[in-house]
Amino acid sequence: MDEILEILEKDARTTVEDIAKMLKKKPQQVKDAIKKYEKEGIILKYKTVINRELFKETDSQVRALIEVNITPQKDVGFDKVAERIYSFPEVSSCYLISGTYDLLLIVEGRDLHTVSRFVAEKLSPLENVKGTSTHFLLKKYKEDGVMLKHKEENKRIAISY
Q1: Structural domain count of the chain
Q2: Whole-number Å distance between alpha carbons of 129 and 124
Q3: Which of 74, 123, 137, 153 is the most buried (most CB within 10 A)?
Q4: 66 and 114 together in one domain
Q5: pLDDT digit string, tens, across residues 94-115
Q6: pLDDT for 24 beyond 80
């Protein structure tokens, strides 16, 4: 992969000037390369990783990983079915995977019931969906290569009799 892309993937806040210094290039060369990557759709978005455990929100969301077994459609394979599924607003990510299941979804909802209703009322009834397996995320330790620090929990003193 291009060195500019590698640097931005690790930290999107790295300035054009810093990238130019690291790569011994002129800032304008780096700026032009980044604009080209954005125009071609190679760079799609700049992302911030937020440790939601440290930033408690009143409207925090529940996330689930959902494995989906699907029947591919004739002449288009998995793509059309996947497109139908990832069009739902609850689906934040959709991957074609190898193994027992065909798709892996990351789904977000207000609470467990919202995600459960999505699976029961929208996902499972789809014609090409053969089965699902839902896993709710309980705690994140690492996301996008970043280790997340956790609030210090109360340490209980052991009581012995």
Answers
A1: 2
A2: 6
A3: 123
A4: yes
A5: 999 999 999 999 999 999 999 9
A6: yes
The pLDDT assigned to 59 comes to 63
Average pLDDT over residues 61-71: 95
Residues 72 and 133 in one domain: yes
Domain carrying residue 127: 62-140
Q: Which of 7-11, 16-20, 56-60, 67-71 has the lowest mean pLDDT?
A: 56-60
Is 132 part of a structural domain of the chain? yes
- Taking residue 109's Cβ as centre, other Cβ atoms within 10 Å add up to 17
Tell me whether residue 146 is in a domain.
no
In the 3-class helix/strand/coil scheme, how is the chain assigned residue by residue? CCHHHHHHHHCCCCCHHHHHHHHCCCHHHHHHHHHHHHHCCCCCCCCCCCCCCCCCCCCCCEEEEEEEEECCECCCECHHHHHHHHCCCCEEEEEECCCCCCEEEEEEECCHHHHHHHHHHHHCCCCCEEEEEEEECCCCCEECCEECCCCCCCCCCCCCC
Is 148 inside any structural domain? no
User: In angstroms, rounded to a whole number, what is the distance separating the alpha carbons of residues 56 and 21?
Assistant: 38
User: Same domain, yes or no, for 17 and 87?
Assistant: no
